[in-house]
Prior knowledge:
The complex is a heterotetramer, with two copies of chain A and two copies of chain C.
Chain A: H1 11-16, E1 24-25, E2 28-29, E3 31-32, H2 43-55, H3 66-86, E4 94-97, H4 100-112, E5 120-124, H5 133-142, E6 145-149, E7 151-152, E8 157-158, H6 160-166, E9 171-177, H7 189-198, E10 202-206, H8 218-221, E11 225-229, E12 240-244, H9 246-251, E13 262-266, E14 269-272, H10 286-301, H11 304-325, E15 328-330, E16 342-347, H12 352-361, E17 364-365, E18 367-369, H13 374-380, E19 385-389, H14 396-413
Parallel strand pairs in A: 3-17, 5-6, 5-9, 9-10, 10-11
Antiparallel strand pairs in A: 1-2, 4-12, 7-8, 11-12, 13-14, 15-16, 16-19, 18-19
Helix pairs in contact in A: 2-10, 3-10, 4-5, 11-14, 12-14
Chain C: H1 18-25, E1 38-44, E2 49-57, E3 63-71, H2 74-86, H3 92-96, H4 100-107, H5 113-136
Antiparallel strand pairs in C: 1-2, 2-3
One pyridoxal-5'-phosphate (PLP) sits between chains B (36, 99-101, 128, 130-131, 177, 181, 206, 208-209, 229, 231, 372) and A (259, 282-283).
Amino acid sequence: MKTRASASSNGSRTRNLFPILSRKMRGHPLVYLDNGATTQKPSSVLSAMDSFYKKSYANVHRGIHTLSEEATVAYEHAHENVADFIGASSLREIVFTRGTTDSFNMLSRMLTQTFSRGDEIIVSQAEHHSNLVPWQQLAQQKGLKLSFIPYDSRTGELHWEKLEKMISKKTKVVSLTHVSNVLGFISPLKKISKLVHDHNALLSVDAAQSVARLPINVKKMGVDFLSFSGHKMYGPTASGVLYGREDLFSSLEPAYYGGDMVREVTLNKSTWNDLPWKFEPGTPPIVEGIGLGAAVDFLRAYPLEDIFSHEKKIMAHAMNGLSSLGNITIYGPSSPEQRAGVLAFNVKHVHAHDLSSLLNEDGVAIRAGHHCAMPLMTALNIPASARASFAVYTEKSDIDALVEGVRKAQTIFK
Amino acid sequence: MKTRASASSNGSRTRNLFPILSRKMRGHPLVYLDNGATTQKPSSVLSAMDSFYKKSYANVHRGIHTLSEEATVAYEHAHENVADFIGASSLREIVFTRGTTDSFNMLSRMLTQTFSRGDEIIVSQAEHHSNLVPWQQLAQQKGLKLSFIPYDSRTGELHWEKLEKMISKKTKVVSLTHVSNVLGFISPLKKISKLVHDHNALLSVDAAQSVARLPINVKKMGVDFLSFSGHKMYGPTASGVLYGREDLFSSLEPAYYGGDMVREVTLNKSTWNDLPWKFEPGTPPIVEGIGLGAAVDFLRAYPLEDIFSHEKKIMAHAMNGLSSLGNITIYGPSSPEQRAGVLAFNVKHVHAHDLSSLLNEDGVAIRAGHHCAMPLMTALNIPASARASFAVYTEKSDIDALVEGVRKAQTIFK
Amino acid sequence: MNAVTDQRDFAGEGMYREHILDHYKHPRNFGEWKTCSVSHKELNPVCGDQLSFQLNMDEKGVVKDVRFSGQGCAISIASASLLSDEIKGKTIDQINALSRDTVQELLGVTLGPSRLKCAMLSLDTVKNACQIYQKYHAGGKKHGGH
Amino acid sequence: MNAVTDQRDFAGEGMYREHILDHYKHPRNFGEWKTCSVSHKELNPVCGDQLSFQLNMDEKGVVKDVRFSGQGCAISIASASLLSDEIKGKTIDQINALSRDTVQELLGVTLGPSRLKCAMLSLDTVKNACQIYQKYHAGGKKHGGH
Ligand SMILES: Cc1ncc(COP(=O)(O)O)c(C=O)c1O
Ligand SMILES: Cc1ncc(COP(=O)(O)O)c(C=O)c1O
């Protein structure tokens, strides 16, 4: 598991680890550039799940028989694996959820239970709906104030300086994306963390786009809560993580209830299980958790430093290639150095949907639309954009296919 | 898919469809009698998921490229398949959740949002924590009344007659298990439905234990909401269903928020997507949903009528075998005819944990504990019980191994 | 015209055949009248497409003429253009009978679920315009019990 | 004694060897005193097991004698019985140093995660009893900084 394979030098060997990438799309090789939506899965992750179902499957935590003991050990080990991967202290800080959205729904409910009317939540104008709508709805229901760090059209990032003026004694939590799923910028979390903690607020981070792109250490970055999805880090759907600092998790009341998260239940009263189980009601995503653990092993075999620099090279190649065509607008920071794996753009006279359909005819899969970030689209004053997003298996030739496809579209629509 | 295999006559052929059942446990064949906790998976379900990951995997609903279109069609088809399986009108009534517990958390939040202080919720003393703790906690938070249909020690079921006296104008919802996960009884849903609807209340049913054991038709049974888990019906973990009558679903506000469940989002306001997507925030359990669809195909190939009568024969064989040993207490209805697949019992002088450990040495997997139904254990005045629970692959020889193991335990502990 | 053949082969080659591009670049019946029998606008927030249709009806409830305007992708504009020709001379009942298959046949391609939404925006807009017209002209020919 | 070998081979054959059954059926130091230095009761709600321990300490903080009572499965009762013998003559620091491995060595089996909980109830109860004793006898030997 500790074998290191350099992502950049072994592009095509990496590709071979992903069964779906050998699929032909109408005769063309599959060029999958929709990794921001979800990544493909390596054989190691698929076989970890499949063989678990075939050899050790059972429900966890309460069974005494061998299968249940094995399942429990494997499931708990996956928590430890994730804890280690993001620099958490122990599995007590790792709650397995069903994805980033689930993490934010859970976290926002647990936190706002402790807030009072007039307390403030700060998010940004560039958040994915997943880190916006839960706070927005709960703020409305509970009379909380929701404020937004605005988009900065000069830098293609957020107006970071404004946070300093916005934050106050009323601010209870600041919840921000680590890497924007549209603009691709990387938030300066260390600085933000200091500012947030100086004001006795909490910092929650959306790592959906960053966890498989750059190294994360929650303690070094000073993050109090971290949310991410398994399916965007080479793991299965229906898996995800909510990390929380142990002292915070200990004092928070759960927001979801059911079996396994309880210690004692009477008809009218319940007490809660130990961490992290008090936040995992019902039969958990057992096999998905095991798949997530295998995805962590996969990511560890590169290291993330290499993936980060690999994707930066791909980014530079893509930004160059597209710009050279002319009539292309690229959103986000202009330097590839300040971006992580996500490239949104528009082609003059070609609607993003049409571009995506045309690219698809040549086997190139990109995303087109609002990327679940409608308020950002409003700020950018566009209804939709195209988005290419990269992964460990993305090669320069994939980018060449993209650029060639865009060129063709320009000809067709000129 | 429509090939019918009679479950009763083809016991051992059925066994061959489940890869894990060929595992040897310390030289013994695996006798898996913990199906109430979770069932094993047939090859068809495992390969549906594995090959989807290897051939058509992508995120659903918004992608324009071929993989995303294929994934969307497959995921939506799984909804239709489930709708058809339980007699729902269309996929608009089928929300994919992550399991029964998730369904109840979602449903209880959505409903109690519409209740007023003093309104009443009725559950029973025999509910799984999953259909108790969410209502209990929300009742407390919102000043609602929670009442309980009591356990009836004469029949081993619930005091059904009492519901008639309890129910009133204040009653907004009655939420009951279809098959008890401890007592094995089958609730008389048609009668209950009439009573509940006569009082303008809603009927929510926990079908976790019934959906893979007896035929269900929500319209014929008069059920307004139905919750169940994929992993207890030969499908994957992290999959589940919340069925809701379309008119009710249409008028309910969602309880969880995020991408994909919205139509339009501005910084301060959101509107919701069409049914059922307005209740499926974020990237849904895509592959799990497809696995669930494959599990439905599997169940359809028998029919459930046959599974039901097969499990009843197994039940009779087990009740006879255990009773003949003496010093055994069986919980629930005394006639196998009134039970579905679940058999809880205790052996005098042998703690259920020790029994389970001893059986495990001979490859027999049963459950021991409170089965996530602590209030029922209190009513039964026991701290724990053993539980054997059956499935389509359970054979008489499995029961013989169980009975022989219990006999051995009696000798050891005598 | 292409029949809907293999479910799995969405939007085969030639989705952007001359036909569609022609209607996109030179939409028929494009523009806006000052007055008309009924006008209606719809929006697809998912992709930002918006279409507005104006209908002129005769006393028998037949579409005499039509104009549309708006913005969107090639599929949505071409569908609107093709549909605007198609509905001329049709009764409201005939328009209500038009289906997603009609639109795909007009386009000459089979669309996957997401592009189908682009294509259906025009039909939805036209049908809703007809409904509004009927509501305000209930005195005329009633919506038959078919 | 069995060392913890293969993680995956929990509770191998002979989990109910004579040794454990003997301590279950004839628990040592079983019973209740009227008075003692400290007494403490713990409950495992998951399986309903409950154990109560009484300790008599000498002036140096050494366990002179012990009694336990309660109900539970064979593993929890046998662990309590074995542990009650083991702690006699030990200091509180020595008791605090006892681990889950100690208990498994006393039992002579390796337990899986759920049965381990049964086995650990006695050790948890004893350790918590010691902590309570120290709290109320803080004047004596302080809990060392190890
Ligand atoms: C009757 C009943 N309800 C609810 C549940 C909870 O299901 P899950 O753990 O899949 O959420 C179970 C299973 O444990 C059950 O047997
Ligand atoms: C930045 C960001 N946050 C949150 C999400 C939501 O993740 P999921 O859909 O897995 O819940 C996504 C992915 O769509 C994302 O890119």
